[in-house]
Structures are given as C-alpha cells and as structure tokens.
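Thread title: Can someone regenerate the structure for this chain?

I was given the following input by a collaborator and told the matching structure tokens would be attached. They weren't. Posting the sequence so someone can regenerate them.
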Amino acid sequence: MSLPLAYYHTVLPALVNTPALDSLFLAIARTSVTEAFFFLRGQSESDQNRMFEALLRHMTQEPLSERTAARGIELANLPFTKEEEALFEQVLTGMGGRTATRARDLVMLRRIGTGRFNEALDVDCNRSKTVGGLNWESLQEGIREGLGPRYDISRMR
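Best answer:
Regenerated them for you:
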C-alpha cells in the first residue's frame, strides 16, 4: 500500500466518487489508525460518519495479533468529539456475530482509557480468554477494588 499512498500524498488527486475515497481511506487505515482518523476529519460530515463506521468495522475484523492489539489501543486513545464518542459507542455496542467480542473489547478499552471506570464495568466482555495472565474479568475486579467506595453499588450485576 505504500506506493498508492505515496502517489496520493504527492499528487493529491481530486477523488470525486465515493468508492475511490473509501478505497483510499481503507488503505490509510491499514497503515495507520491515527492517520485514517485525521484524514476522515477533513471530509464532509456524511463522509466522516461513513468512514468512521468503516474504520470501526475494519478494526473489529483484523486478524488477531500484537499489531492488532496496539492498533486497538491507538484507536481507543484518539481525541474523539462528543459526536464521535457517541458514534463509537453506538456502532460497536450494536455489533453482533463474530465481531461482537472485539467490539466490546474496544468499548471496554476506550472506557478505561477515558477514565469512565463505572461504565467500563458495564461491558460484558469475553471473560474466558486470558492474555499474559490477565483477562477482562480480573481487570474489572481490579477496577471495582480500585474504585472502592466510589463504585456505584446499584450497578452490580
């Protein structure tokens, strides 16, 4: 993808149709989540929403790897606007099927990363998968303990 992206950034051709713009956007997204995010911000509002949803779908469908995990952290730490935050939650919590687990992981990661710990406890993540001796259940338990009296008891399941 480096040659087509180099061409685009050098020549800056006018992309007049949606498929061409979407293809370019996904090529950027494959190389850098942050670059894709800031690229979409330069588009019209309707294109921004479509591209943001495409980025989220792309992130939940990538093969599992350390690179995918790093890209998930990169996505979760982007400076979303209120509208982007709402779209992020809406799209990812609405996903079903095979991508649902990854989507919930991204929601949990974003909520923890933005300090919304009580909300992070509401995410029903894959509790059985352990990575490096840690799983979401033990992480959620650590959050509960860390919140101490600040943990909202009414939220307990």
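The two ends are 46 Å apart (CA to CA).
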